[in-house]
Write a structure and sequence with these properties.
The chain is α/β, with parallel strands linked by helices. The protein has 9 helices and 17 strands. Strand 4 and strand 5 form a beta hairpin. The longest helix has 26 residues. Bound molecules: zinc ion.
Amino acid sequence: MSTENTSDQLFNNSIKILTDLIAFKTVSGEDNSSLINYCDEILKKLGATSFKTFDGEKKRVNLFATLKAKHPSDKKPIILSGHTDVVPVSKGWSTDPFIATIKNDKLFGRGACDMKGFIACTLAFAPIYSKANLNRDIHFSYTFDEETACIGAPILIEELKKRGVKDGICIIGEPTNMKIIDAHKGCYEYTTFFEGLAGHSSAPHKGVSAVEYASRYVNKLIELREKLKERSPKDSIFDPPHSTLSIGGIFGGIAHNVIADKCHVNWETRPVVKEDGEFLNAELDKYANEVLLTDMKKTFPNSSITKKIIGEVTGFDRDKKSNACELVSNLTGDNTREAVSFGTEAGLFQEIGISTVVCGPGSIEQAHKIDEFIVLNELKKCLSLLDGIKGQSISN
Ligand SMILES: [Zn+2]
C-alpha cells in the first residue's frame, strides 16, 4: 500500500464488500449461488479465470478463481481460501444479523469474523493483484457448507486433483486474530441406525429390541474409547493428547410395554491421527456386523444396522517445515505455532500436498455467537498480509 490514500480506499472497499457479503443469507445447507456469482463477477472483471463445482442439486456452489502469473516462475501458487456459509442465527441479536452494522471499532453481522471478513479482504485486494506483475498464480477459493462437517470443500478438492493442482501454498482465513494455526484434530460425526422387530414386551424373545442392541453398541464405543487413550501418541500436541469419542444421544422406543423396533445413536470422534479413526471404525463395524447383527438376524432376518457418515473433517497435521507457515511468519512477524480444537478445511488441502496454514482476521471467540463481530483493525491487518503476499509474488 503505497500511500495513505490507497490504503484508506482499500480498507473502505473491504468494508463495502463485507457489507454486501453479510447481506447474502448463506446459512449452511442453503443456496449460496448469489454470493458466489457476486464474487465471480468481481474477479472476472479483473481478468480472472474460474470454475465452479456443485452439490448434487446444483444449489450450493464452490468457486475457484485464478489470477494468472504474468511472468511465470517456479514459485508455488498461492490459494486464498474461505468458506461462504455461516451458522444459523438464534434470537437475541441487538442488530439485524444480515445487515452489517458498525459501532465504534467493530462491525457486527453473521459471518463478520467467521469468515466473510477474510473473503471481503481478498476481494478488495484482488484489483491490486490483477495490476501487479505477478510471478505466480493467485487463486481464490470460496467453498460452501464448511460449518456442516466440510461438505463443500471435498468436491472442490476432487476437481483440483483432476486438474492437476496439487502443489502450492494455501492460507485459510478462519478467525485466528491473524495468528498462525498449524494443526487441529479431525472431527468425524456419525449416526448409527438400528432396526429390529417390534412386539409385546411380555414376549421379548419374539421381538428384536433396537434399543437393546444400540445400548450394546454404545458400550462397545465406550470400551473402544479406552483403547484410544492407550494409543495416544507420545509427542502429541493436543489437549487431551489422545483421540476422543463422545456419545451425543440415543433415541428410540415408544412405550414401556413395546419392544422398540427403531433406535439411533449420534456419536463423534476426534482423531489425533488418521489411523485412530480407521482403527475405531474397523473395530466397531466388525463388532456390529459379526456380533450384533448376526444375533439380531437369528430372530428377525430383516434386522439392520446402518452407520451413516454425517461428516468426516480431516485432521490438520503439524508440518515442522511448512512453506505456508514460513510465508506468513515472514510477513506478519508471528513465529508462534498453535494447535486448536476447532476443525477447518485445512486437512483437505494438506492431503493433496498443498502446504497449508490457518490464519485470518477476527477472533474465534465471536464466531457462532449472538452479536458476532469483527474488530475493524483486524481487517487492516489482513489487508497488510495480502499486501505482503503481493510483495512476495512480483518480479523486481
Ligand atoms: Zn469458519
